[in-house]
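ok so heres the complex, two chains, lmk if somethin looks off
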Amino acid sequence: MQARPLMPVEEALERLLALAEAAPIRDTEDVALADAEGRVLARDLVASLDLPPWPNSAMDGYALRLADWQGEPLAVSQRIFAGHAPAPLQPGTCARIFTGAPLPEGADCVEMQENVEVLEDGRVRLLEPLQVGQNVRPQGQETRVGEQVMATGTRLGPIELGLAATLGHARLEVVRRVRVAVLSTGDELVEPGLPLGPGQIYNSNRRLLASWLQRLGCEVVDVGILADDLQRTGECLAGLGDVDLILSTGGVSVGEADYLGMALREAGELALWKLAIKPGKPLTFGHFRGVPVIGLPGNPASTLVTFGLLTRPYLLRRQGVTQVAPLRFDMPAGFDWPRSGTRREYLRARIEQGQVRIYKNQSSGVLRSAAWAEGLVEVREGTTPREGDSVSFIPFSELLG
Amino acid sequence: MQARPLMPVEEALERLLALAEAAPIRDTEDVALADAEGRVLARDLVASLDLPPWPNSAMDGYALRLADWQGEPLAVSQRIFAGHAPAPLQPGTCARIFTGAPLPEGADCVEMQENVEVLEDGRVRLLEPLQVGQNVRPQGQETRVGEQVMATGTRLGPIELGLAATLGHARLEVVRRVRVAVLSTGDELVEPGLPLGPGQIYNSNRRLLASWLQRLGCEVVDVGILADDLQRTGECLAGLGDVDLILSTGGVSVGEADYLGMALREAGELALWKLAIKPGKPLTFGHFRGVPVIGLPGNPASTLVTFGLLTRPYLLRRQGVTQVAPLRFDMPAGFDWPRSGTRREYLRARIEQGQVRIYKNQSSGVLRSAAWAEGLVEVREGTTPREGDSVSFIPFSELLG
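and the predicted structre for the whole thing:
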């Protein structure tokens, strides 16, 4: 029936990223650091101070001016704790100094306390040869005023927020959250907690996607389950309000009962992409009254793969994120895959004894295998990896956050 | 000064995990799925239904009873959509059926629509040989009633929550959040947004740790910066209320100005572990009025490494999590490391062209290198990896969540 060649995964990703770049979220917000977790930086962060702000001691020890010292024991003329401003160094003396404390004016090196003998009269004898700059962290060693420290499009996690704090920023300009309407289609779906009628199953995609979207910094508009009814589907879509993406699962591949597709086509355009991906062949992209629409296949394993590999990067790019590709690692296969396919397969897999093992049942309806797994292993079209061959493994931690 | 051998990283981790197991969080909570994200399952999840609940069609096509069919064209006696209960199959006919719809009683296989010719009189001719069970997903194929689907101690992310939803669970029993008091010590510290006085620097650990702890499902009790003053430190500790861990940064290695250490020793015990780890040698573990205390070194890179490699697993194990080790991957080094050390080094690194590259400046005060990096590369004690040698890489995504 379908003679068109399948669309390679790379091409689908390229198209989606181009579509994302054509519809960037331009609004920004100024938020406190505590609220910036998981958000995307909307403006380059430029250092407004040197780090460290002044030369300071890398050790607990004694600060002195090397040129003034001929090897004699030195009187200790002040004690400098971190956080306190030192007096200029009195010539011919040294200063007791602690890690992180500013070097006093006039001093140019620090001897660590382990190499110092404290005499009975309180003077100290330095036991080892010294060099100018020894155990001193110079001003601006890490960062200089005016340097770009983080670029627009950086995702803000604990490390990035810590870095912003280091530079004194209490607030950051971030990209507004992407508002994503999540809807599931299918008369067979029932929400968890309710009784199952004949022929019905529980809706898992709503929870999978809502949690995942939140981790990606999105705001979820939870539409729930659409009835298999053209008029009600149309009414629901029209009432969505101001969203940046309509994300649906199910109802895109079944011609005769695809009310969502019909409703979307009535007020927009919709393309069905047949992807060379397994699980997850059919993916819909279109617009409804100007709002982008992505339709994912409904079975959970397909939803997982097509969301993780295609929709996640799309959503991050909408927010201006540059780095959207997950890390992947070449690992020896702990399995044989004798049947080469025409679609790129993503198998739920985990790492055991340094090899990638796959779940016994890769049938596409199975979230259980994904909970067992630690990531996805990619088997490329036309390949038949054998045990010990190198395969590409993508940890779930790289996809889920 | 210090003759004791340094404690290997493995030993420190083992000790911390044993300490965590000795002080498990026993309280549990019953929460809605939407609130269970990032939490830890407190009770085995056992399937209360078969998945799928009934045999169903894996394809859009036609369902029939193979033994009743001699190759003749078949009348279509009903149409079965997903979510609708079928009538028993009328003998000598087939049923139009869609993906996910229940198989009608009496049918035992499905022919996909691509292999069917629809005749002018509405009957269908099946063009290919068929087998019993073809394109049928049997009841209980994925999960059977009574099977354990997730074990106590499972961390709940999008996949696990989706799986719980599949089984009809709207609520889950989870472990109470660990309450962690986060405090920083040092007169040199100032919160971001305030002006820096002489000798002062901005406090970054508070933000780093607060964000990170939240990702680990912890509740953060934000104490802020303790003054370098024994009496006020003691008062602050006494007023912490009901917490499960006191987590401090800074002030554990400086003998003379270690007011936190003094205050803790007055009402508990405190051990200083000298770890064979770099950055991050000194780590404190003890108890204050029965509450466990972990003291991390204060510079951000050390905090990052000792929190990620030692405190994170401790906190997860307190919540009963079994799997606390991050995934790590052997990768070829893209650098030379000619100086072998007596401590295990964790270098901020990223992956470029399939090799692990390290940040040029690994000086321990630098969060900037961590923001640049994608993970940590481990250089073991006494080793001098060269470019192309295999080294162990831990992605930040594995540590930060």
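quick notes: DSSP finds eight helices and 26 strands in chain A. thats all i got rn
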